[in-house]
Amino acid sequence: MVTTTLTTRIPRSWVIPTQEAGSGRTVNDATLRLLTVLLSFEIFFQRIAIPVGGSQVQVILPITYVCAAIMVRRGGLSRHSGRMTGYLVAMTACSLSALVSFLRQKDSTSLTSLMLLLATYVPFVFGLRPADARALLPRLLDRFLIMITVLAGLAIFQFAIQLVGVPYTDVVKDIVPSQFLMHGFNTSYPVQYGSSLFKSNAFVCLEASFCSQFLGFGIVVCVLRNGGWWRLLMFVLAILSTVSGTGLLLLACAGVLLAVHKGARFALTALIGVSLIVLIISFTPASSIFAARATETSSSTSSGSLRFVQPYQRTWDSLGSDPATVAFGSGSGYADRDAAEFFRRTGLPLNYALVPKLVLEYGVLGTVTFLSFIVAMFVRGSQSFVLSGSVLVFYIVLSGGLLAPVVTGLGLLLVAWFTVSPQDSDRWAGDLGPPPPSSQPPAQRRVFSGI
After folding, report:
1. Radius of gyration of the chain (CA)
2. Which of 135, 194, 331, 432 could form a disulfide with 21 if both were Cys (CB 3.0 to 4.6 A apart)?
3. Residue 87 domain-assigned?
4. Rounded to two decimals, what is the model's pTM?
């Protein structure tokens, strides 16, 4: 075994192996079925919302609560005292920052935003038993690959029918009533201004960028699980159909992590593969579009600038020189109100990523404590630092994921519920008691030296 300073156990093999569960097979099969249901909602129902007063909640959040409650009742999922402590510390710091902002008469302080923050991260206090986590993660990743293969097929199909002359239409919008669809996302977006060709979101994703990022995770998992070259090719073609750079950025970060873990030979092979893809694209009409996207952050109206440049600039300007604002922020919900005001003035969607949103709303106090909690949930005791690193990049940099259940849900299902460090194993046993009895006779289990 190799143990990092973050107590992350890294298998010597870069492929995540399959192994048997340590507790009852019946409990594990039932848990896997519920995790699969959650994963299917995470991927294929991310555009569906439940109206709550004047706002919306993504359907994945209440579904997560229901499935988590069932798993807790059956013994497949249990509360961890260490996770609970981290959650309480982070939420107390954010609540204190919000209270200080309210007492300072900050008009933008939103109680609804704070309550949603508290509710969104409750599932992070739970996790699987160590043996079950190691047994179920590979099986769930295999099912994730199947779902992403379907998503890739939809993305390619959506783009291909446009190429042969079928006009673009938002099929989901035509079927689902407006009040049950998430609002405020660029679901239908042309590949460039004035074009009749639209970026592919596989019909079901909130935006083409989300589709691109999910497909990027598909490639990462495909490599980790040795899912086959044909899937890799299919996922690459699907990412290209989204004409979105965020999935490529995710892949670049994951590629660096894989190169560190796998070694120079893998890095060289990956570099050659990427070079071939770039060479092929250079001979197609898409080359000019991707070239323009690569330099778009220099334009204040581009999606790259609205996602990766202006939110950080506005955060820096908003903090000013007021020490209290730097320490406690401007109140929960401030970033959303600022983005809404920016859209009313310019018609452009400003996308606050996790860090600028946290700093704006909860200051240094809330940001430091919350990020410490999240990094611990995604990294400490992870079965794959490549997967954990990719989730962190997706969560912190590429998406505005602080209050987005579709973002936090993916982190839960791919990493957080499966992270248990060696030092925590005894603590889990003390918290949870003996494992549930198996309804079947114990089977001879294979021992994998790589995990």
Report:
1. 22
2. 135
3. no
4. 0.86
> Which two tokens mark 223?
């490599």
- Per the document, the length of the chain is 451
- Angle subtended by helix axes 385-392 and 405-414, to nearest 10: 170
Q: Which helix (H) or strand (E) holds 127?
A: strand 126-127
Residues near 400 by Cβ (< 8 Å), separated by ≥ 6? Answer: 351, 352, 353, 354, 357, 407
Residue 374 confidence (pLDDT):
94
Degrees, nearest 5: CA angle 400-406-407: 45
Check: CB of residue 235 under 8 Å from CB of residue 148: yes
Give the residue ranges of the chain where pLDDT is below 70.
Answer: 1-27, 106-108, 277-278, 280-301, 321, 421-451
First vs last Cα of the chain: how many Å apart? 7
Place of tokens 């999240």: 374
CA distance 225 to 362: 39
**Residue 220 structural domain:** 2-72+110-301+381-432
Kind and range of the H or E run holding 251: helix 246-262
Cβ-contact 17, 389 below 8 angstroms: no
For residue 383, what pLDDT is reported?
Answer: 86
Torsion region of 51: left, alpha or beta (phi above 0 gives left; psi -120 to 50 gives alpha): beta
Sign for the pseudo-dihedral over CA of 43, 47, 48, 53: positive
Residue 291 lies in a domain: yes
The reply to whether 348 falls in a domain is no
Beta bridge partners of 79: 126
The answer to whether position 136 is within a domain reads yes
